[in-house]
């Protein structure tokens, strides 16, 4: 009987909105931000924050490029709708690579840097 109740709770949790972050590498930041925001808004999600983080050097070439622009968009969406949004991003030619992750903190909050002790060599 407990397993049925747990399963029902899991299904109900899927309808709750959660905060996500999509980070994308692209050649044209402005175009990528408009593409991402357009797909996010058309899926019924709310864009919380969008930013262009500028050009970043890559560890390995992507489509023969050694440097691409990094953009990020924070948005809220129900878990059940994330897979459809991911498929929309996959078919966009203006986005070279992307990843969608969950986010638990407030996107406006500054991240604290950890103080590191120098290692003894």
From TrEMBL:
GO terms for cellular component: ribosome. GO terms for molecular function: rRNA binding; structural constituent of ribosome. Pfam families: Ribosomal_S6. GO terms for biological process: translation. Belongs to the bacterial ribosomal protein bS6 family. This is Small ribosomal subunit protein bS6. It comes from Candidatus Berkelbacteria bacterium RIFCSPLOWO2_01_FULL_50_28.
